[in-house]
Amino acid sequence: MTNTNAAYEFIKNKNIHEHEFNQAVSEVLNDIIPYINNSEYDHHRKYAVIERLVEPERIIQFRVVWHDDKNRVQINRGFRVQMNSLLGPYKGGLRFSPKVNLSVLKFLAFEQSFKNSLTGLPLGAAKGGADFDPRGKSDFEIMRFCQSFMNEFYKYIGPDLDIPAGDMGVGSREVGFLFGQYKKLSSQFHGALTGKSTLWGGSSLRQEATGYGLIYFLEQMLCSQDEDLKGKKIVISGCGNVAYYTALKAIEHHGNVLTLSNSTGYIYDKDGFDLEKLNYIGKLGRDIYKYSEKYSSAIFAENKKPWEVSCDIALPCATENEILKEDAKHLIENGCTYIAEGANMPCTIDAVRLIKQRRINYAPGKAANAGGVAVSGLEMAQNAGKSYWSKSKVDNKLRAIMENIYQICELHGNGDLAKGANIAGYLKLSRAMIEQGLI
Ligand code: 2IT
After folding, report:
1. 164 phi and psi angles, rounded to 5 deg
2. How do 73-84 and 125-130 pair as beta strands?
3. Is residue 265 within a helix (H) or strand (E), and if so which, with residue range?
4. Is the confidence at residue 262, as pLDDT, over 60?
5. Where are the membrane-spanning stretches (predicted)?
6. Residue 86 alpha carbon to ligand 1 centre in Å
7. What gap in Å lies between CA 325 and CA 312, rounded to an integer?
8. Chain centroid, CA 196 distance in Å
9. CA of 164, closest atom in ligand 1
10. What Å distances lie between residue 97 and 145, 168, 172, 319, 361, CA to CA?
11. CA-closest residue to ligand 1 atom 3
């Protein structure tokens, strides 16, 4: 296939109901196909590289039966999309959310393959999870769900096979329960999951890694324009792990963080957050509206997204497709000149098109949020070497990886980091694919 439309139509028709997956594929093909559309890349067509990259090596789907605190039987759907093992064992997070379906997980696994390739670490790509809603569940309910999920899932993972981690709805508590059950079923204590507690095999900074990495990446973008974070007005969406540690590192580096949000609305503090305020937000859980009751410099905008707030930098750290074209328009009209994605695919295709047309400095998630999986890769290395590394060692490595990803994207994209991420990721994956034969 040599033309973008023909290639995309073929893939879209094969996966006709998978909107998120088709969106992620089309975004990548738009950059890749023109790039390889010359005789130098004839062998890529001969070996059907693109067709194989979009077809998961394996998809596992299973029933998860558990009982809630009222002894009612509950049934959920568990999944793992093992996208490819070109560069290492399958690697990627688990998401527990009622919105989980195969399209979402295939898009995430596809993005993961480019992201993991960019880290420079020996990581294949996968994504999984369940349509289970952890909100409002007791600790015992979460535990029983995780145990039941693992009763089936343990057959398909292992330190040299597939190493899951957390994603939305799966944090250290869930990883703990999943690991405990994996250990019981396999009789092995080894690194079959990452994001573990640092008491028993986890890496320091894994929790902070995505947010810290995002800020390290953003600082490279700023530096290329002779700018820095100091005093910059920053708008962040989300209130989970990624948003929280993004805000923390931005504040440490003297950025002026104005907003955080969740699905109930956003908080906007015109004086900006400091570490004490952030700590308070961390304790509020879902009830972020209470922030404005304590701090008179703040408002809570119910059911709204923070993209209407004037800023220099926008960091979407909540979820996919949270920035629509109108949101991007508001951001740009209000002076925003940098957008870096902490979430996976938070900007719609139309939003990205506008952002690029207006020459906004834009970093795609597969590059800018790679810090999380990168530190997962470092956790695997520590587990394999039966050692623990200090916080400063992990932090230095994380920073070096993010700086390297920035350089690679810059080099391959000529100023377009999204294109650079797609091309650099593709070149490595395609080469591995051709070298490993028709599998
Ligand atoms: O989207 C992601 O990169 C993650 N959820 C982290 C995956 C991992 O294996 O650490």
Report:
1. -75, 165
2. antiparallel
3. strand 265-269
4. yes
5. none
6. 17
7. 18
8. 18
9. 9
10. 13, 7, 16, 12, 31
11. 373
